Amino acid sequence: MKKISQPISNAFCPQGLYLYGTYTADSKPNYGLFCWATYCHSNGFRFVACIGEDKLTRDRIRETGVFSASILTEALLPAADWCGTHAGYEHDKSSVIPSECGSVLHVPIPCESVWSFELKVEQILTPSEGSDIYICRIEQLTADARLSAPTLSFEEKLKLVSPVVTMDQRYLPVAPHSLGEWGSLANF
Ligand SMILES: Cc1cc2nc3c(=O)[nH]c(=O)nc-3n(C[C@H](O)[C@H](O)[C@H](O)COP(=O)(O)O)c2cc1C
Q1: Under 8 Å CB-to-CB from 60, ≥6 apart: which residues?
Q2: For atom 18 of ligand 1, which residue has the closest CA?
Q3: C-alpha span between 4 and 7 (Å, rounded)
Q4: Best of 13, 22, 23, 33 to mutate for ligand 1, by most ligand atoms within 8 A of CB?
Q5: What tens digit of pLDDT does each residue of 122-175 get?
Q6: Is the CA virtual torsion 54, 51, 162, 8 positive or negative?
Q7: For residue 171, what are the β-bridge partners?
Q8: Cα dihedral sign for 54, 71, 115, 182?
Q9: Structural fold of domain 15-173
Q10: Is 143 helix (H, G, I), strand (E, B) or coil?
């Protein structure tokens, strides 16, 4: 294979997508769409989120120390795309995604979400002014009850979730079939 140097980009690096939910100061649900997110180990399993630049979601997380993160699914995609491209500073997003309150934390959760974390910020890193990295304890996971049905295979559950990932500024589906379990592929 011939390799060449390229301008820095993550074009072919798949990123998961989440709707982050916070309540505004006047108690309305607000959502933004986010992909700079992952997990780490820090005194246990933790959710890590990066919010770059000024935005309402960042202000509300700083103020309250809590937010929800819901996996982006194909069903939520149109509303999520809108929330990710319209600033909460300028738009009232409270009616775009029907919401309910989290069961453990005071955070809005989309009624149609099949997999939502309720997150409490444990640590804030500020790599540059305006940009925050949150390391969060997962206080609660609420999932569609169908995902715990013992009769369904993982692939059937994945099809039910239909998560959306992003690459190169576009949305892509996840193929609902497995390439094998960890440690089961090498035959050396
Ligand atoms: C696909 C996609 C992914 C995004 N990921 C991030 C992200 O990881 N971090 C971030 O700061 N903004 C991200 N944004 C931008 C926010 O969603 C956008 O600023 C939105 O207005 C935030 O909501 P708010 O203004 O109500 O806080 C992303 C936008 C899109 C469309």
Answers
A1: 22, 23, 24, 25, 30, 67
A2: 84
A3: 10
A4: 33
A5: 999 999 998 999 999 999 999 999 999 999 999 999 999 999 999 999 999 999
A6: positive
A7: 166
A8: negative
A9: Pnp Oxidase; Chain A (2.30.110)
A10: strand
pTM metric for this prediction: 0.97
Is the minimum distance from the CB of 57 to ligand 1 under 6 angstroms?
A: yes
Q: Is any ligand 1 atom within 6 A of the Cβ of residue 30?
A: yes
Q: Ligand 1 center to residue 156 CA distance, Å? A: 30
Task: Please report, for the chain, the start and end positions of each structural domain, with discontinuous segments joined by +.
Answer: 15-173
In angstroms, the CA 41 to CA 121 distance is: 14
Task: Please write the tens of the pLDDT for every residue from 42-57.
Answer: 999 999 999 999 999 9
The token duo for 80 is: 């999520």
Q: Token digits for 174?
A: 């996840």
**In angstroms, what is the span from residue 182 Cα to ligand 1's centroid?**
32
